[in-house]
Amino acid sequence: MSNQAKEITRFTFDCPTELHFSVKMKALSCKKTVKDYLIGLICKDVAQDSISPIKDSEFKKELPAFLEKHKGLMEGLAAR
Questions:
Q1: Can you give the chain as a three-state secondary structure string?
Q2: First-to-last CA distance in the chain?
Q3: For a Cys staple, 27 with which of 21, 37, 46, 56, CB 3.0–4.6 Å?
Q4: CA 39 to CA 1: how far, in whole Å?
Q5: Residue 40: what are its φ and ψ, rounded to 5°?
Q6: What pTM did the predictor assign?
Q7: Are 37 and 27 in contact (CB under 8 A)?
Q8: Closest Cα partner for 63 from 54, 50, 72, 52?
Q9: Could you read off the pLDDT of 38-59 as tens digits, one per residue?
């Protein structure tokens, strides 16, 4: 493992209380923190369905169509 510090990004999201409780219980049964449990699930999912990086020029080309397709979602998120 590299001696360099990894860059960190914070995830913050709301979830139903019942789901939160279930996740806490599942993490506890695995002897993990909720954070470690969720990071493990995300890593497993990403490894199973990995995506290839996209070139910056391709991203800029595809972004307008993506934003138009998901306009309602974007407006809903912006309104929060």
A1: CCCCCCCCCCCCCCCCHHHHHHHHHHHHHCCCCHHHHHHHHHHHHHHHCCCCCCCHHHHHHHHHHHHHHCHHHHHHHHHC
A2: 40
A3: 37
A4: 18
A5: -60, -45
A6: 0.57
A7: yes
A8: 54
A9: 999 999 988 887 777 788 888 8
Question: Which residues of the chain are under the pLDDT cut of 50?
Answer: 1
For residue 76, the Cα-to-chain-centroid distance in whole angstroms is 18
Cβ contact 58:51 at 8 Å: no
Alpha-carbon separation of residue 5 from 1, 8, 11, 49 (angstroms): 10, 9, 19, 26
Tokens representing residue 72 in the block: 């309602």
46 is written with which tokens? 């990403």
CA 27 to each of CA 10, 24, 34: distance values in angstroms, whole numbers, following the listed order: 19, 5, 5
